[in-house]
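Quick one, tokens below:
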């Protein structure tokens, strides 16, 4: 492990343009459950079906009942050593672009400035009927609190018009945000170092981003479990992200 940490540190020292893809694995150390690991949500609590847009449209009550406890864990979460290490890396003078599959806002809370949310965000909800936007971190603090309490309780939040509010996250069956995806592709194509952190690299099109790197760019995977792209990486580390990134930190 010490050799791997040393190798990672050398790669970080030599890099100037770093593109990072993060998945649920970077947030598990903050208490947010992942989806696909042996102890993930899809194997212990629910299935992918619940996060399909057609399922949500038909059974919003069942979605929110399942999602309530997960939402509470996200609201209560704080950035961990992995998030903080990425923010520190950006502050070291390097250009760091994060494309995240997460919806927890922890990169921004840690201080990272260039973050593209490929799967959307929980900061806003949109009415399925009239299209009205509701912010959970906006100026209307009381309304935001009421919505947060409903979500955490697993109840369906509704618009003033009576329509169901949908969190502005990307469900299966929906396309990724065009700007976030396009900006991420550009960052990965321009990077001299690509990091895939806490992601199974099995959900597309996000998992395709590391393959957009230039042939001269180095590629590092840090994930608890093996991924389909391990054989294509210059360095693979199967260990806790916070510990690895902290030990490899540069100033």
């Amino acid at each position: 492990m010490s050799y791997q940490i040393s190798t990672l540190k050398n790669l970080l020292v030599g890099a100037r343009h770093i593109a990072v893809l993060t998945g649920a694995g970077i947030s598990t150390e903050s208490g947010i459950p992942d989806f696909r690991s042996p102890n993930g949500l899809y194997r212990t609590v629910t299935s992918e079906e619940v996060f399909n847009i057609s399922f949500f449209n038909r059974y919003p009550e069942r979605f929110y009942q399942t999602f309530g406890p997960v939402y509470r864990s996200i609201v209560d979460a704080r950035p961990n050593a992995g998030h903080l290490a990425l923010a520190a890396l950006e502050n070291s003078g390097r250009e760091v672009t994060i494309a995240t599959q997460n919806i927890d806002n922890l990169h921004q809370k840690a201080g990272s400035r260039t973050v593209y949310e490929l799967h959307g965000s929980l900061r806003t909800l949109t009415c399925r009927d009239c299209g009205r936007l509701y912010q959970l971190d906006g100026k209307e603090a009381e309304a935001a609190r009421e919505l947060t309490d409903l979500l955490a309780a697993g109840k369906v939040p509704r618009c003033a018009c009576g329509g169901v509010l949908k969190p502005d996250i990307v469900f299966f069956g929906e396309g990724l945000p065009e700007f976030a995806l396009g900006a991420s592709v550009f960052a990965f194509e321009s990077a001299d170092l690509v990091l895939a952190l806490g992601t199974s690299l099995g959900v597309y099109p996000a998992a395709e981003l590391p393959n957009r790197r230039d042939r001269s760019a180095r590629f590092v995977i840090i994930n608890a479990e093996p991924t389909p792209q391990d054989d294509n990486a210059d360095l693979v580390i199967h260990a806790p992200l916070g510990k690895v990134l902290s030990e490899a930190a540069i100033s």
